[in-house]
Every structure is written in structure tokens, then in C-alpha cells.
Records
---
Amino acid sequence: MRKPCCDKQGTNKGAWSKQEDQKLIDYIRTHGEGCWRSISEAAGLHRCGKSCRLRWINYLRPDIKRGNFAQDEEELIIKLHALLGNRWALIAGRLPGRTDNEVKNYWNSHIKRKLVKMGIDPNNHKLNQYPIGPQTQHVVPPRNVACKLRVSSTDNDGVSDAASYLKDETLAAGESNLDLDLSIAVPSSPIKNIEENQKKTDPTLLLFR
DNA sequence: AAATAGTCCAACCGCTATCGG
DNA sequence: TCCGATAGCGGTTGGACTATT
């Protein structure tokens, strides 16, 4: 069992002070990102490197978009989650200015609950047999569809393939745009078939049509 | 006004992947 | 090839805040 990286005596934990934030910002502005452990020491922060990295990535980075998620962002998260599962970093990578932590929190606190209310299982995007809430009459009969899309957790190649495919798609479309149509145009691609299948039948996607 | 419940989100923890010696 | 250090990721927690009773 490896030692935890943050068990040093004298290492700060908990909420960051404004002074600590400023030290980290100043240091990264001057020297750029690099080895987080050395950044922490060089910036005079009594924090572990991990903590510095997290603080920078999730809060201090200048390109972070803060505030509520737009409807199109929410739709994109749902689509990507149906495709990629809990790969928050990959999903966040498709949402400019959003972090994996933010997407994960938003999923757990908003979207998940919303889907449950609609009678959709947020884990596999399938309709539950006994939906909760009044909106369930809009959805189609349950079909085992989204699960076909999910790549098994051990099949990392499949996931990364899907992700890289998505990346190519967006690059072609322009990085700043939220390309909500994630259909894939390569003939004979198994992913395309999955996507098309999903388009036809995934209840979570039907809700946004 | 106080107590309690619910919600949100920043931060931590533990694990795996990757890299360099 | 092996091993240790580090980065990165996803799950979880805890505290602050808000709503409800």
C-alpha cells in the first residue's frame, strides 16, 4: 500500500484562502503548469501537488466558465453520458470551460434527479418500469438500447475510440461550437450503427427532440 | 425564530495509468 | 523489465447555504 501523498506534517488541507489562490495564480502565470509537486513548493504553498492541481483545474484556470449550465450543455452531457458513461473528463472535454468535477457535480445534483423523475434510469438511460412523476407519458416504451452503446468498463479501447471519434467530429465542426448532433458519418462504422440505433430509441434523447 | 431536511459544490481519497531512471 | 514517483481520474465526503416545517 502506497503512502498517501498528502500526509506530510504541516500540509494544509481544506478550503483555499485568497492568499493561497493568488500565490498559485501568480506562480503559474509566471512559470506555467508543470510538475505539481514542485509548483506547490516553489510557490510557497503548504499544499500537496494534487491539491494545487485540483484547485487550478477546477477553480483558478482563467478559461473556466462558471455559472449555470445552458440547456444545450445539459443535452450534450446527457448524450455524451449515454455514449461514454461516467467518463467525466472526456465529457468535460467536450464542454468548453467546464471541468470534470463541475460536470460530475451537475450530473449528480441535477440531471440524474431529472432523469429519475422522468422515469429514466440515469445509469443506463433506459426507462424504468415504474416511472416517477407526471412527465412520463411523453416517453416511448422501454427498450434495451442505451446499454448496447455502453462500452464495458474494462473495454477502454472502445471508449477511447468513441471519444477520439467525437474529437475528430468537433474539430471538423469548430471547437467552440456545441455540436449537439453527435451522429457519425462513417459508413460501416459500428459506432455509427450504435449512434443511429440510439437516436431512434434512446429515451433520454427523445425527450429533447 | 429555531430546528430540521435538502441541495450544492469544493475538496479529499484511493485507484490506475504513465513516465523516467 | 522493473520499480518508484507523479499525474490524472472518478467516487465520496463534509460543510455552507437554502428551503421547509
---
Amino acid sequence: MEYNFREVEKNWQDYWAKNKTFAAKNDSDKPKYYVLDMFPYPSGAGLHVGHPLGYIASDIFARYKRLKGFNVLHPMGYDSFGLPAEQYAIQTGQHPEITTKTNIARYREQLDKIGFSFDWDREVRTSNPDYYKWTQWIFIQLFNSWYNPETNKAENISTLIEKFKVQSSKFKVGSAEKKYEELSEKEQSDVLLEYRLAYLSNTMVNWCPQLGTVLANEEVKDGVSERGGYPVERKLMKQWSLRITAYADRLLNDLEGIDWTESIKEAQRNWIGKSEGTSLTFKVENSDDVIEVFTTRPDTIFGVSFVTLAPEHELVSKLTTPEQKNAVDEYITFAKNRSERERMADVKKITGVFTGAYVLHPFTGKQIPIWLGDYVLAGYGTGAIMAVPGHDSRDYAFAKHFELPIIEVVAGGDLSKESYDAKEGKLINSDFLNGLEVKAAVKKAIEKIEEKGLGKGKTNFRLRDAIFGRQRYWGEPIPVYYENGIPKVLAENELPLILPEVDKYLPTETGEPPLARATGWKYKKHTPGPSQEGNGCEYEYSTMPGWAGSSWYFLRYMDAHNSTEFVSKKAVDYWQNVDLYIGGAEHATGHLLYVRFWTKFLNDLGLIPVTEPAKKLINQGMIQGVSSFVYRLVPVIEAKGDRDKGDKISNALRENLILVSKNRSELFNTGYGDYDWKDEELNKYLTEKEAKVRKEIDELEAKITYMYSALHVDVNIVSNNILDQNAFRNWREEYKNAILLTEENGDYICGNAVEKMSKSLWNVVSPDLMVEQYGADALRLYEMFLGPLELSKPWNTNGITGVSNFIRKLWRLYHIPSTNNEQQTPNFSVSDEPAVKPELKVLHKTIKKIISDIEGFSFNTSVSNFMICVNELTELKCNKREILEPLAIIIAPYAPHIAEELWSKLGHSESITYAAFPECKEEYLVESAFNYPVSFNGKTRFFQEYDLSLSKEAIEKEVLALEQTQKYLEGKTPKKIIVVHNKIVNIVV
RNA sequence: GCCCAGUUGGCGGAAUUGGUAGACGCGCUGGUCUCAAACACCAGUAGGAAACUGUGCCGGUUCGACUCCGGCACUGGGUACCA
């Protein structure tokens, strides 16, 4: 028997757990290194082979850093609040906590089998009260803070109140103006809510009726919910939000200083969407009202031919003339009822209405009509635009549709065909801007606008404040209660606010969130006061969104069991922030933006020393599944008239499922009666079935054609596209009696497609099976070997035999084959003789490559390099300790189990984890000669070895003297000879 | 539409600063072992009989281009009436 990975891997996993081999210390003389994975949501489906990809990469890096002498923090935990557990609870009544615990146990079991070097003592779970206590605590800090634009950071709200008092600020209450001290408690609360970083307000939210909750912009994709894919509509609601917009500029600027991929940075830049322009007011004709617009193209001011307001704009009803009132009201109703999704679906559809009112052009004084259009968004800028159809494609489309004038003010386009949006060209028809280039014109226009007091230069962001309340059960309760309608946060010593028990995980009959079902769940002050009387105060019934817990978890790992602080100063001063963060790119504008926001906020309060959560970020690619299909033959009836009868016919023909092998697709689209299925069973079956309905077919003059539809089939019963027919019949009841139309050799060939790996597509490959069959080391090596970490690639189990063979070859290097072949295992045999130069060269070449591969995150090439190394050492029949000991160390990050086993056999009693990574000694790599490729006009013809000490001139001379050179020269004289030392010789003819 | 990434054998992929294109592995073909199969081992494997041709397509720079520049196509991802 050879290498027994099952036994060896189990032993070492037990050893690591027992000895807490990977526990990180919070004080150490070693330099620190923090390697973090994005923690998973523990779903019921368990891990598939795609999940561990990033974990394996980070584990290799963490183990490498330990070998390099770093104190490494490499933790893991669970993002355990979330929708699936709650939906499961709604269906089954099972408490989400139970579901979550079960799923976590399964995840842990799967993770353990792969041999990760996580420090499990630091595990965090966001749904654990010990954890969410501090999530709530951070919320309270957000509530108690405002953003001071002067200091450009968050401060305690008390500094704002102080400011109000010092400046004697006045606040409008109804028609009166009062000082801050003169306001009632409620009025003060309302004023402060406009500044707090966590605040309650009436905002347009993304409401998802099916989920019964609101969603943040980042959770809505293509107009449907990211989770579940349900339609989302706009709705005005009182909601908790976080003022992330206060940090827009810093979130944007600080991207410069972090080593993240350009694509993620770009996605964040786009999401933040900074645009610089100017505000500009238009006076409404015969009224004191003005309409303020935001524009980035003030240079086109003389091209304005109308002004468009969002249907929700506050001035609409006031402006609208009596003649237009009906049309306007009708349009507003229409716009309101169009869901986000519809609006997006027909971007091309232009809708709008004229209000009957006019504004006056600020420079020419001309009348400009005011229109409503839903292409103008209420939530961006001022909800009103100046329309310049000549130089904005949306305005152009609107103008064309409603036959409004189009004025050319920038030369260079052809306005009869399309608008000219480019920001280059000279201004025309523009009074004082004529002749200027766009850039200069923008500047001049802003100057004039500011000079005349019409507006001023302004920056707008696309980023919206993050809606923070969710009308869900399975999340952190927001630590707020309402006293006389005033929202108040709990005292810190009242945390955690435990998620109460409810009878059902659904909204109440009156539409309140599930938490309103909790009986007797009321806030009572610890200290005596009005709320102590009676039943106490109502709590906030919304819970926090899924991203709350994940916005600071990287800090908790530093000090996971601290019961008095979210993280101790000492721990965070030591660990600072994440050195290497690995996770999926799908979090580009969600999690990765929020965690940056919270980090900056906590830094502002002086609680942590860093302003960014992660120095370096790597996005692992997705591992896609390869789905398999069977092709179902579907009779399609085209009947004239009677539809019911048509259905009856097709049902009769469909009684048994007919599945056609892929390569017999010539049979598809065959019509009724004119086929030969080349399959007796099927001919018989269909002839019988058709005979039964022949009368109806003829009566209806129906036409039958056979089409096919592809059905997903479990990839685990398909091997190399050949269906295991027995397993297939047993797989599902409806396939038991299916008629399988096979190839001539009896095989049923499946089709396939590369898709997302998902339970519903039946293409999931579980890591458990791979570990069981080939071992954890093989799985780890193979996942890395598949290709560059960042690239998406389809999973193909077949290739794993390659790395599995490699592991056996590696094992054999350290052993001599047993002579009496039967029972005995190969004998461990390593020689203490000094290594010879070729052996040392192989080793040190490999060390050099592995170091540069790991540090460049090129894990796929390092696996190749190990293979080359082992192949070469096998060729050299090398079994020297001097070579094999360092080899075990450099391979340990990738294949830790076999490395530990070999290490212990080499006579070490300690784990290989903290061995020293060998240095590359360049002296072994020095070559004395180089085999030069000799090329003619850039095409390599032959090779010639020359000593490296030879000068260029000498080589040139030698090459020309060669017989082969003369042959390729064909008697011509070379024009030029290029000799690149240690690289190439090129002869130009 | 805009932004980002990518396109190399039958497949996954490799190629340092512009310097031997196809490393390594899978698959395939042939062979050895075996009664046979599997495993294992050995040899071959970009195309072409060859001259030659080949890194998505067209063009450029260069002694020399997968690599640099200009244009285009396609694939994947992100984002979208953002004024």
C-alpha cells in the first residue's frame, strides 16, 4: 500500500486541533500579518467546490507567512443573519437559530476536512448576542454622531448642539423661528435627526412586497431583489438610514491609497458617482417661485429649450395651469404606478406632459416651457433639469418626441440625426460664450452664473444614504425605543437588545414587522422615569440589514471574546487592519463600501487607528458548474380551432417522457407521421399513441411537430457526458418509465453548458466527495492548479488525477519501494549524504519560483513548479535529506498534511507550521553557458551553446562561422547581427 | 450606452523587461505489464506530406510582438434615463 491520505490527513487535522497549532497571539515579537476571508453565509446547501477556492488561497498565504516568521491572524466565522433561514422559518416554523446552527455545523465539518489553518478560538457569528451587542453599540455611536464638515469627520452630537447655541441658530417651526433652546424636546429631536449619522426620515425606499421589507440600493439588481429576484417598487416610508453620503468624498479619495484591483475601485468610483457642475435657478414667469437645477454643462445654457421636472417635484401642483391640470394629474398617477422595473424595461419609451407654465431664461429672458418627465429622477440633484436637446441624448429624444426646439450651441455634430454630447468643440449661438472651447466655456459660464447670483459651483454624488431598517425577523434588533414619539437609543449597559421570540415569522395583520408580534416586548428604563410607568415604551420593530454585522467583523476577530469593548485598544493597535483580504467581486459596491464607511467612522471617534479595513484585496473568480442536459421530446400540436382537443392530443402523446440522446438531434423538428426513429421501442410507442388520437388529429386537421427542451440532470449521474441510465431512472419518479432514445452503441449522451454552480441547476460538485476520493491535499492543489485565482473557470473533476499522481510521486521520493511486495508499505528512506550540484540546482530554482509565485498570488504556476521539481528529482533519483527537508517545507502551505507526515518521518517532533522557509541560494543557479537560439529575421532556426563569458563580438564571429548559419544565409550577406547576452542571437538578412 | 476584465492546441492553462509560443496537467494515440481490464510505466501529441503557417480580426512600431501603439469583433462581469 502506498500513501494513505485518509489516515494521514485525519491524524494531522486532529493534531492541529488538539495542539491549537494555528492560534494567533495578541502579543508577539514577530511582525504581524492578518489574512482574512470574506466569511460565508451558512446556507442549507453546504459548500460546493467553488467556496473553498479563496479559502485555500488565503490559507496558503497564511501558512507561507508563518513559515516566513510572521505572527499570523487567520480567522473564520459566519455571517449568520440572513434571509434564507428566515424564509425556511416561515415555511416550516423552525426557529432560524436552529436552522443556522445546523448549517454552521455542516459548514464547519466540511471546512475541517480541507485542512485550513484557521484560528477557530476566534470564531465569530453575527447572530450571536455576544457579537451583535457590539453591532448595536456601533449603531448607537452612529446615532450619537454627526458629520462636521469643518473638521471633515464625525463628532459627538453634543458638539453640534453647542454650535447651535453659540451661533444662536434659528429653526423654522411652522411660521415661527426659534432658537435651539426654545424648541420642544420633539422639535429638538427632529432637528438633530437631520444631522445624526443614523437617522430616521421619510424617504423613498425600495419596497419589496413579496419579501415584505425595504432594501438598500445595493441590494436591488435590475429592478428586482438581489435575494430571491422579486420585483421592487418605490415607496415613501419612515425609515432608519445611515448617512454614508457624508463620507462620499473620503470613500472616493482613499481608494488611491489601497492595493485593491482596479475593477473594484472603478466600481466603487462609479457607485459613488461624483459629478461636478453648478446649480442654477430659473425664475418662474409671473410668480416668486424659482426652479433650481443641477447641470454639469453650464456652457450649454443658451441651448436650453425647455425645463423638465420629475413628476414628484414639489412645485408641480403650484405651477400647473388650470388648462393642463387634468393632463398633469393623469401623468403623475401614471408615473407613480410604473414600477422601477417597468421604467427600466422601457428606457426607450418617452413619456411626459406640459405643465402650461414657463420659466424665464436667466440670460436672454426668453420664455421656456416647463415639462414633466419621468426620465428625470426626484432623488438626484434637485429633481429638475435644464434640457439641452442639442447636446444631451435624453433631452434630444424627449424634444424629438414632443416636437420641441433643438438649438445647436456646440459646433461639431449633426443635430438632424442625433445630439452631440461630446465635451469638445467651439461654442456658437451663445452670446458671451461664443468661440470658446467647451472647457473654457464651462468655467466662464460658472463665473457669470455666480456673478449674477443665479447659482454656484456644486458637486453632486450618485451615492444615496443607506437604508438601514429591514422589516424582517432574523436580524439584529435596532436598539431604539420610542418615548412620546421621540426615537431614543438604549444605554450601553442595556445591550444587547436580544431578539425576542415570536409566534410566527411574518408581519402582523396591521402590516407591522414580525418583531411587533413579540408579546410583552417593551422598553422599561433601568432608572425611574415616565417610561417606567405603565407598559413601557415600544421598541423599534425593524431589524438591521444583512450587511450590518459584516461591516466591522474584521475588528472583532482581533479580540473575539472581549465582553467590555467591541475590540480592545491594545488588540487593534497591534493588528491594525487586514493585510490580505480575499473574497468575491460581487461585494464590490455593497459590503466593501459599508465596511470602509464604518472603519472611517470608528476612526473618526478615535476608537481604531486605521481608516481602511484592508490594505490588499484579491477577488477570487467564480468556479462555474458544468451542467448536464437530457433532451425531452415534446409533441407540439398546431390545431385549428379547438384548443382543448389539441391539448388532449398532446397529453396523450406525452404520457411517458421521451428523452433523446444529444447526437440524435437530427430527429428533432420531425413532423407527425413522416419520421423513422430508428428505435423500435419508440416507433412502437408513438405509433400506438398516435393511433389513439388519429381521429382527433384528422378532425382538427392538426399538425404535430416534435420539438425538444433541455432538462437539467444531476451531474453526479453523468460521467464524461454519458448518462448512467439506471441511476437516472431511480433519480426521480417521473423518469422511471421514460423512453431513452440512445446512440447506436446504447449510450445516452448528455449535452452540457457552463453555468453558475447551483443546487437548482443540478451541477453542484461537493468538496466532500473530492476529499473522500483524492484527499484534502489533492483538492487544495487542484483548485489552485485550475488557473489564475482571479479568473472564473468551469469545474472539471477529471483533471484531479494529475495532482493526485503528483502527491504519490512526491511520497515516493522519500521512500524506496518495498522488496517483498505484498503487505509491507514502502520504506521511508532518506540519505544523509551531501547533495550534488544538479540536485541543489533543482531545489533552489524551485524555492525561487515558489517565493515569487506566492508573493504574486500565482498559485497555479507554483503547483506546476512543484510538479517539475518532483519530476526532476525523481529523474535524478535524489533521496538526500539536504534536498527533501526544504522541499517538505516549501510544499507545506499547499499540501500541509503530507508535508507534516514527511516532516515527522524526517525526525521532527514539532509541527512543520513554524519551520523556517528556506532561502534561495543564487550560487546554485549560476550557469556557465547558455544554449542560444539562433534566429534569422526573428525566426529561430537552430541552437548553439556558448560560454557566458564570451563577448557579444566573439559570439557574433562564432555564429557566422557555423556551417548551419551559412546554410540559412543562402549566400547572402547579413545586414546586421543582434546578440542579446543570455537571450538570443538574431541575424538580419 | 458607459466602465472593467478577458480572447493562446481537443480542454484547463504557461511564457521574467519586447527575445526559443504552447511549460505543467487533463484528454487522446501507440507501446510495456496482464488471461483480460483497471492501475502503473514508457513514447508521441498546435496545424501541415513538406516548404511553411500559427497567440480573436485589421493595421503600425521594432532586428525581433502573445507582450507596445491605433482601430475593430466577440465573451464574461459591473453599472445605467445621475442631467
